[in-house]
Amino acid sequence: MSEFTLRPGTAADAAAVLALNNASVPHVNALTADTLAQIVAMSAHYTVAEDADGILGFVLCIPSGRAYWSENYAWFAERYADFLYLDRVAVQPRAHRRGVGRALYDDLHARAADRWPCIALEVNLRPPNAVSDAFHVAMGYEAVGVRTYDDDTKAVRMYRRALKPQSRRPA
């Protein structure tokens, strides 16, 4: 595998990011082009990893205080006053185990550290995603809860990684 670089995501990346996102279901939910554009518009951190052959991965994060429709985002908003929500991350299968995910996270942590007290995200329990669970624990994320969906067919483990002292909203 050749070297890769990280850079801010742009409108020109939309088709490749959408295809990668939708190929990564069920680890992320499927999107339409319009929904992806809405998420990008409210994001505070959107980075892609690429090599000479194209997009290898991406990370897309939304800050607290936005009118985002995600129930998982709302779960964190009820508990934390200030956070950066990692809404979605995906890496091409050809780039798995090559450091792309770690590079995207290391870049995110460095850029977020002086702006937000923590990063919040969830990982699927049903259907299970043991690889993602292990990755997030290794990256310093702490499990802070479980959210079961109303139809009981899906559940997620909620994680956060403290970046600096945080304030917590009363439950």
Fold blueprint:
Layout: E1 5-8, H1 14-23, H2 33-42, E2 45-51, E3 54-63, H3 71-79, E4 84-91, H4 100-112, E5 118-126, H5 130-138, E6 142-148, E7 155-162
Parallel strand pairs: 4-5
Antiparallel strand pairs: 1-2, 2-3, 3-4, 5-7, 6-7
Residues in helices, as a percent range? 25-40%
Care to count the β-strands? 7
SSE ordering = EHHEEHEHEHEE
- The neighbouring-strand order within the major sheet is 1-2-3-4-5-7-6
Radius of gyration: 15 Å
Strand percentage lies at: 25-35%
Number of helices: 5
Oligomerization: single chain
Mean pLDDT: 93
What distance separates the N and C termini?
47 Å
Question: How would you portray this structure in words?
Answer:
The protein is α+β, with helices and mostly antiparallel strands and 171 residues long. It contains five helices and seven strands. Strands 1-2-3-4-5-7-6 form a seven-stranded mixed sheet, with helices on both faces. β6 and β7 form a beta hairpin. The longest helix has 13 residues.
Features:
171 residues, alpha+beta, 7-stranded mixed β-sheet, 5 helices
Write a brief structural summary.
This protein is an alpha+beta fold. Helix content is 30%, strand content 31%.
